[in-house]
Amino acid sequence: TSPVAHPCSRLCILAFCIWRTLYSLYTRTWLGYLFYRQQLRRARNRYPKGHSKAQPRLFNGVKVLPIPVLSDNYSYLIIDTQARLAVAVDPSDPRAVQASIEKEGVTLVAILCTHKHWDHSGGNRDLSRRHRDCRVYGSPQDGIPYLTHPLCHQDVVSVGRLQIRALATPGHTQGHLVYLLDGEPYKGPSCLFSGDLLFLSGCGRTFEGTAETMLSSLDTVLGLGDDTLLWPGHEYAEENLGFAGVVEPENLARERKMQWVQRQRMERKSTCPSTLGEERSYNPFLRTHCLALQEALGPGPDPTGDDGCSRAQLLEELRRLKDMHKSK
């Protein structure tokens, strides 16, 4: 006789099928766009001045301006202050981004889209129509709306003195890209605009890839310098650090960062940027090589060896636990 599936297994399979159906509707039909428009209206009503107070960073002729949009997203303007030229990253609320463009008195010449999800690409249409010479960059594998200039891994976008490199980081979506602003031309730190690949103490869900794919993408950014500033696509810091405390409760770097984040959030201040050096010390998704994490999650393959699959299994388990985690 055939074995009968355990009820919990059947429920998991059913939940997975429902999730895949909803995800397909969100990404492949206009129902997703309508849902995004509803999110946009609700967020504008709830947060007329944005969900967080963002602090811009001004370097030697370059300004990075976070723009809090929707309920927890960030868009960004990267500005060459001498040429008065701007690049927008993931402009999901075109009204908020346009207001920042006008306030800064700059010309929008490019949009960099990390991936196709509406909460990152939803403003492409309105802004590209308003700014006729604006180019829309992104991966051709991702179905990004109003894409005009497809990018591949290591392609460079030049705007004034800004040199921005695209890095292919699939996993969250098939064509996910992150963007690295080179710090050398302005003698400052490089800046990583990570979309939904990497957050403060977290990483994105693997919607269109495997744990191995996501691990490879995270390793891509781990290869960047410790002083690289991390500008993520969402304000998830407090919840992510809470989860990190579950899997590494004795991590003092995490505890110090949590105290700082809680002070920031009490005043509704943004928690970005962090640095990649900081992230290495407390972000569990960047610490799959650590024996302490392996021991905390129970017996299994040794993630410190050369077998990349073992690190991928640990990453997959971390992601599963994070999906079940509820912030308190």
UniProtKB/TrEMBL annotation:
Coarse class of the protein's main subcellular location: membrane
Bilayer topology term: Peripheral membrane protein
Keyword rRNA-binding recorded: no
Pfam families (UniProt xref): HAGH_C, Lactamase_B
Gene Ontology molecular function: hydroxyacylglutathione hydrolase activity; metal ion binding
Occurrences of domain Metallo-beta-lactamase (ranges): 72-234
Cofactor: Zn(2+)
Functional description taken from the UniProt entry: Probable thioesterase that may play a role in cellular detoxification processes; it likely acts on a yet-unknown alpha-hydroxythioester substrate. In vitro, it is able to catalyze the hydrolysis of S-D-lactoyl-glutathione to form glutathione and D-lactic acid at very low rate, though this reaction is not physiologically relevant in vivo.
Protein name listed in UniProt: Probable thioesterase PNKD
Organism: Propithecus coquereli (Coquerel's sifaka)
Lineage summary: Eukaryota, Metazoa, Chordata, Craniata, Vertebrata
